[in-house]
Amino acid sequence: MTVPSGLTSGTWSFDPTHSEVGFSVRHAGISKVRGSFKDVDAALTVGSSLEDSAIVVTIKTASFTSGDENRDGHVKGADFFDVEQFPEMTFVSTSHAGSGESYTITGDLTIRGITKSVVLDTDFNGVAVDPFGITRAGVSASTSISRKDFGLTWNAALEAGGVLVGDKVTISIEAQFVAPAVVTV
């Protein structure tokens, strides 16, 4: 399969200032709480075909933020991410499929030392040259995981029934990558 139009071969670098890795999870069964990670690094290696391409992502778990200091401290602690013992989460792609603007990226997601295969539904948003002459590519991706599959089992029972934190976590990604530098001889 061919790579999306406009992506040149080489390693595209992640642009953290124009990207976001976030998630949402049901809270108390009645609403969703959202969080994101501020320290993310990724490399998109584009080969001559989709099969020859790869993406590797590293997320520093201590960079989690939800806008609530108390919740952030709890999520960073041993009940959830345990950032002291597990300072990073990773995603390494294993296969890619699709064409045009719609793709699936399958890969190994590791959280708390547990690795599971996940599928990211991915939209390729195109390639553009910004006003400073920098070539950029954009993607939007999402998936849902069971937090229990990754050892994130802490919860509290609610008086009316149910639990405080839902099991289904929806991960959403908006990412920009910068084209490899062109070397002239």
UniProtKB/TrEMBL annotation:
**Which InterPro entries does this chain map to?**
Lipid/polyisoprenoid-bd_YceI, TTHA0802/YceI-like_sf
- Name the chain's protein: Polyisoprenoid-binding protein
Domain of life assignment: Bacteria
Question: Can you give the residue ranges of the Lipid/polyisoprenoid-binding YceI-like domain?
Answer: 11-178
Q: Name one Pfam family in it.
A: YceI
For this chain, the family text in UniProt reads: Belongs to the UPF0312 family.
